[in-house]
Amino acid sequence: MWEIAAPAMITAVTHFSIGFVTCAFVGHLGELELAAVSIVENVIETFADGIMLGMGSALETLCGQAVGAGQLNMLGIYMQRSWIITGVTALVLTPFYVFASPLLQFLHQDKDISKLAGKYSIWVIPQLFAYAINYPIQKFLQAQSRVWIMTIISIVALAFHVLLNWVLVTKLNHGLLGAAIAGNISWWLVVLGQMVYLVCGCFPEARTGFSWLALKSLASFLKLSIASAVMLCLEEWYFTTVILMVGWLDNPEIAVDAISICMNLQLWTLTIALGFNVAISVRVSKELGAGHPKAAKFSMVVAVLTSIIIGVIFTALVLVTKDDYPKVFTGKPVVMKEASNLCYFLAATIFLNSIQPVLHGVAVGAGWQFLVALINIVCNILKPIARAVTSLGMG
Hints:
Layout: H1 2-26, H2 31-68, H3 73-98, H4 100-106, H5 111-123, H6 125-143, H7 148-171, H8 175-198, H9 218-246, H10 252-289, H11 293-320, H12 333-341, H13 343-352, H14 356-366, H15 369-394
């Protein structure tokens, strides 16, 4: 499991750290700039990324089971089908980026934050199409346990991203435009690096060039993709809802900055659990494809227990450094204090999120996306009811 999980963790951490680094550099420009970027990353991009990742997760199920069954010739066809679906999805999602400013104002966000966020959102549209290409390639490589190459490419891209932000944002004072340019270049560097590896001849059986078979059975592939998207989106969109609700409070710049600092840390630790998500998904799909259900169950137990142990470690680190972690993002005492006050809720959420992604990985590997999507829909319907009951009780 660790042969897949370790590089998958590093890849997930480095991919998330692209946005993490952007927030760290932008946070020192000012409260308004950090709030604008945080709104885009946690509302617009999280909304789009959840859909794109979900659409790509259908490939994870099919490719893993194809490898387990020895049908390597189907991997390239599945990847091409996924590219078609994610490419069309990116086009559909583009208006959300273009009209981000009026959309955020319609959702009663601060006017100044919404206007600046709208500009930044348009500047990062190239990243949306990078996601459309990136996720299918990732699932193609993961199914064949070629994860280290993704890790190396991601590390190089992240190092380049830090350098670009330092040059464009800090030295040349290009502000948010510089941060957007750095993010666009870094994400497309990830995609181009993976594409070069894909076409270099390392997959003679799995990638045989374009096939018209990719255009067949799109309806059934789309159905599984939508179920995967619903399963993942409802979880990611919860973070979007939190950011929007915080934007309704008094002093929205400070409130959004504080919650964004906590959510950046939470999502950064979540990427560790996502490494186990990838590992268990690959293991379960391969074992089921090969007809070994007991091995799949054993892999699940190992992944869950290991992820819980790591979750406990991160929870303890947050509690120990509660007065220090906000300093990474901001030098404003009022923002640091607000972020520090949220540390106990942050620690509890980090612990719970060490378990859930692993169980999601089991569902993806087994092809249970539709069932889990239904469970998530019911749970998300119950969330506002629970909030209302809690509020009445406190009142």
